[in-house]
Amino acid sequence: MSQENVQVVITAFEAASKGDLATASKLFTEDHVCEMPFPAHLPFGRDARGPAETVERVQQLTGTFEKISLELKEIIAQGDSVVLIINEQLRARPTGKQFKNNSLLWAKVRDGKIYFSRFYASTFEISESLREDKAPQRPARPKKNAVKNALKAATTGKAREGKNKVKPAKKASKGARKSTARARR
Hints:
By secondary structure, the chain is an alpha+beta fold. It is built from 6 helices and 6 strands; from the N terminus they run ααββαββββααα.
């Protein structure tokens, strides 16, 4: 039975990855549950119930990412469960960022149709590829007396000398201890 289950899952996966969602949806039961554990802020970050919702989630996923390459690395089957281990190279359409996604599709088959599926992927890589903004850069703070010195220079025309210069680190003498851990021995 497990070889037939493998063929059903591979057929649905290949059809969905080629964009033939009509063929893929015929391989789902009416009570099919598709779990997509992605962050809630992503449009495809919700579970789907039934073939129509599952197709909708897959369309949202494929509409967001352009597939550059896809490789089915391994197939594991036991009983009614089939696991596909997938390596993908994707490009996020909104940002143009490319990334590698190692994902896993776990599906359960009953009477020649998929009744449960769960898609595991790197949610960090997916979220980062969709992020357009960069982390805010903290502005450099002036040195301790730089503000006072600038004000004095502006009012009197004279700045204090040497107050804001960076001093080089002192070199340890030859006999100085380098670590307190060594000193305790």
